[in-house]
């Protein structure tokens, strides 16, 4: 029997980009942002403007040193028993991130084969049974069933199934078996 497929975003879903952005932003600009202070804000509003944000995201080693989201490794290992997992990242927006993301996945998720890593621009081409992502711009075009992973910038969006963490994501997906 063919396994169902899941496409899983990296930043904000597997990798804790929120903590890293806050730390880099506060260090670079002498700010005092916290996770609580940016809840419900867009990325551009939370971090000043798009140019400032892009400057942080284009720094060497930014993506290579992202913390792993709690329970992500164990969750993917468990999901792999019943699903084929693809890691999908719109990485071409930040070309410096391409090699860093591959190295990061190799370190933290060595059980994900290279064939199941998709670094792309638009995720509209992704055709899996499920897509777990933190951005509606990707979920709105999902060909399968979208699952929104909670992030500061999407807390006020309610038009997709939402999970707050990896334990909830596993429960939602296992309920479909």
TrEMBL record:
GO terms for biological process: pyrimidine deoxyribonucleotide catabolic process. It comes from the Bacteria. Pfam families: NT5C. GO terms for molecular function: 5'-nucleotidase activity. The active site is at 9 (nucleophile), 11 (proton donor). Belongs to the 5'(3')-deoxyribonucleotidase family. This is 5'(3')-deoxyribonucleotidase.
């Amino acid at each position: 029997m063919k396994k169902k497929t899941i496409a899983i975003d990296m930043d904000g879903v597997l990798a804790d980009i929120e903590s890293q952005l806050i730390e880099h932003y506060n260090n670079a600009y002498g700010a005092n942002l916290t996770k609580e202070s940016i809840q419900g804000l867009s990325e551009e509003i939370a971090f000043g403007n798009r140019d400032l944000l892009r400057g942080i995201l284009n720094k060497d080693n930014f993506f290579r040193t992202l913390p792993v989201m709690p329970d992500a490794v164990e969750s993917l290992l468990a999901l792999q028993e019943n699903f084929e997992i693809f890691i999908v990242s719109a990485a071409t927006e930040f070309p410096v991130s391409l090699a860093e993301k591959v190295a990061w996945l190799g370190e933290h998720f060595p059980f994900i084969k290279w064939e199941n890593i998709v670094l792309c621009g638009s995720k509209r081409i992704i055709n899996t049974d499920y897509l777990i992502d933190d951005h509606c711009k990707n979920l709105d075009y999902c060909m399968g069933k979208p699952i929104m992973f909670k992030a500061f910038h999407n807390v006020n969006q309610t038009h997709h199934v939402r999970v707050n963490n990896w334990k909830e994501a596993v429960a939602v997906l296992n309920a479909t078996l």
